[in-house]
Amino acid sequence: MSIKTLEDLFIHDLSDVYSAEKQISRALPKMARAASDEKLIEAFKTHLEETQGQIERLDQLVEATPEVRIKRMKCHALEGLVEEAQEIIDSVEKGVVRDAGLIGAAQKVEHYEIATYGTLRAMAIKLGYKEAARLLEETLNEEKATDEKLTLIAEQTQ
Ligand SMILES: [Fe+2]
Ligand SMILES: [Fe+2]
Fold this sequence. Notes:
By secondary structure, the protein is an all-alpha fold. Helices cover 84% and strands 0% of the residues. It is built from 5 helices and no strands. The protein has helices spanning 6-34, 38-64, 76-91, 96-127, 130-157. Helix 4 runs antiparallel to helix 5. The protein starts with 5 loop residues before the first helix and ends with a helix. 34% of the residues are buried. Residues 21, 24, 51, 54, 113, 143 line the site of one fe (ii) ion (FE2).
């Protein structure tokens, strides 16, 4: 994909995060099954529902922004982060230590998403895509809230 303009870059990053969300929606059920703490299991399940909503929100964004369409691509960062979460599951037996590892893995994902959605929102504002900016901010706030929730769970369970 050749990227020349800010609009091209926006489409690239949007397509990247679309792939990221799809990968996250496949990983979260596995993470919920691998966790022990009830609050953590609940947090993973809640975020799975939110993630499905975020994918729908990306579809809404595309509908609301005629200049934009999503290209097929794979988010390599998420592929790596999901692989690391799987390594935790494979190498730590079920219990508090694995939970701590899973929280860390999940927070890396959230921070990646926060960085990505923050950048996308800033680009949308620059490009004058008002509805897109609003939708991106909604998701950005959900990712931030999830990150904070995970921090709280980590503090309560350690
Ligand atoms: Fe997300
Ligand atoms: Fe997230």
